Amino acid sequence: MQETKEISALFNLLDDPDQEVFSTVSDRIVDYGRGIIPNLENLWENTLSEEVQERIEMLIHKLHYNDLTKDFTDWKSNPYHDLLFGSLLVAKYQYPDLATAPVLQELERIRRNVWLELNSFLTSLEQANVISSIVYNYYNLKGVEMGYNNPDDFFIHKVIESKKGNALSNGVLYLLLCELLDINVKAINIPKQFILAYFHNDYDQYEGSINPQHKIHFYIDAISGQIFSHKDIESYFKRISVPITPFYFQPMSHKRIIQLQLEELAKCFENPKFQYKYDELMALSKLLDE
Which residue, 221, 285, 265, 287, is CA-closest to 95? Predict the structure, then answer.
């Protein structure tokens, strides 16, 4: 963006100690939109004051966040709620300049490797075993416990780069592959877990009279690809003393999965220094819920 006299004047006020003045200046800068980011980056490189650099960084972050809020609003308004695009938006919170092409290319490479091993004569269990063999053995995807010390464990592009993720991010990768391969695997609402279920092909989730549990072949642990039986899941419910109801076996919507990603990612920033990130991520989740 061409630097006008007004922009130069605003930049000169970024070091003003009066918080009210700075608030007014920052609001005016943000009003310019993302086009002013290169100007801010250039100013950062030519500024010696760490305090001013921090203010510039927060302004750039706010500009990116405003754009991301608009992108999530558009995603929410689209009736399809594409899971891959939603996951990339989550990653763009921390990596606003994320290049999506490498993610799409690598996802397609994995899909093709799985597709080459599939055929119409395989049972649902054999299909799941093919996917798990390619993803966890050949591709060497590793699972880590759900922790909140490393935000990268939640981002789809970082999972693909590092071949390491938690149950949620690995599960999203598994779901994306199943969608591309037209395999009826969905995430379900098991308490305190992110578990995938392989549904019968004739299951209609909008048919309210059917108990979805009766339409599930088996369950998949996204951390490792391990298969769970109905008995395994029923034992888990007994262990946590929760009565089984059909709700827990209903497929999660893509919107709910993305909300869950945002909510779990927010827990990485539950400390005073990054409280604003926690608040922003929870605001994005709430935006999808409205």
Answer: 265
Distance CA 9, CA 143 (A): 51
Tokens of 35: 């086009």
pTM for this structure?
0.92
Q: Rounded distance, CA 104 to CA 101, Å?
A: 5
pLDDT in tens, 198-249: 999 888 777 777 899 999 999 999 999 999 999 999 999 999 999 999 999 9
Domain ranges in the chain are: 5-77, 83-289
Q: In angstroms, how far is CA 142 from the centroid of its own chain?
A: 18
What residue type is 170 in one-letter code?
Answer: N
Helices (H) and strands (E) in the chain, counts: 12, 6
Half-sphere exposure of 8 (CA within 13 A, CB side): 4
Given the structure tokens 């608030």, which residue do they identify? Answer: 23
Whole-angstrom Cα distance, residue 133 to residue 60?
43
